[in-house]
Specification:
Keywords: Oxidoreductase. This is NAD(P)-dependent dehydrogenase (Short-subunit alcohol dehydrogenase family). Belongs to the short-chain dehydrogenases/reductases (SDR) family. By secondary structure, this protein is of the alpha/beta class. It has one domain: NAD(P)-binding Rossmann-like Domain (Rossmann fold), CATH 3.40.50.720. Helix 1 runs parallel beside helix 2, helix 3 runs parallel beside helix 4 and helix 4 packs parallel to helix 5. The chain starts with a strand and ends with a strand.
């Protein structure tokens, strides 16, 4: 199987959907993993108009066993994963005095732990030259105290991506995160389409000057 494949974790109508459309327009087959069956069905139909193969799995990435099985089945169906993109995060409006330890760990399990699950499940199907990308945020450096867990997630995500890149590099696979330094909006430089373009560009960096964190300032 030689057709390249994009696997999107946390697929939805925003940045991840825009990224899936970008790759589909280039002829990539697309695997979608998300929690909303209706959203996945709509995105599958849209991508199918490009004439590519699209497969979707409805699963909670924090359900480790179910997620690993679902990703394994998708990867087996395609035969390969060339780009794995990780998008999920949890927004919980609680400051550090309101946020419980259980809530913090629940959010980190989604926004950081989910990447671990996804890469471990997909790794056997990732050939040399494959890439892992993740949607980062300025919250990693400048967290809003009213959403304290989000900053922890994005800082942890960036840290984990660094470890993944170091681990995967000897196998010819690289990982990077794009730190979006602005608020997402329907239009303009921080629209989903523009951020998706930045993510695709990050995946295609020259390995000689590879950056594990790419800042996107719009």
């Amino acid at each position: 199987m030689t057709t390249p494949v994009l696997l999107v974790i946390g697929a939805g109508p925003g940045v991840s959907g825009s990224l899936a459309r970008l790759y589909a327009e280039e002829g990539y087959d697309v695997g979608l993993v998300g929690v909303d069956t209706e959203v996945l069905a709509e995105l599958t139909a849209q991508l199918g108009e490009s004439g590519v193969r699209v497969e979707a799995a409805t699963v909670d990435i924090t359900d480790t066993e179910a997620a690993r099985n679902a990703i394994g089945l998708l990867a087996s169906a395609f035969g390969r994963i060339d780009v794995l993109h990780f998008n999920p995060s949890a927004f919980r409006e609680k400051d550090p005095l309101e946020l419980s330890v259980a809530e913090l760990l629940e959010d980190v399990a989604l926004g950081v732990g989910g990447l671990l699950t996804a890469v471990q499940a997909a790794r056997p199907f990732m050939p040399e030259g494959a890439r892992v990308t993740a949607t980062g945020s300025m919250a990693a450096d400048k967290p809003w105290n009213r959403a304290a867990s989000l900053g922890v997630q994005k800082a942890g995500l960036r840290n984990l991506v660094r470890s993944l890149d170091t681990t995967l590099e000897p196998h010819g696979i690289r990982a990077t995160t794009v730190t979006v330094r602005g608020a997402l909006s329907a239009e303009g430089p921080f629209s989903p389409d523009r951020v998706a373009e930045a993510l695709r560009a990050a995946a295609r960096q020259d390995v000689a000057s590879w950056e594990v964190e790419v800042a996107y300032d719009g």
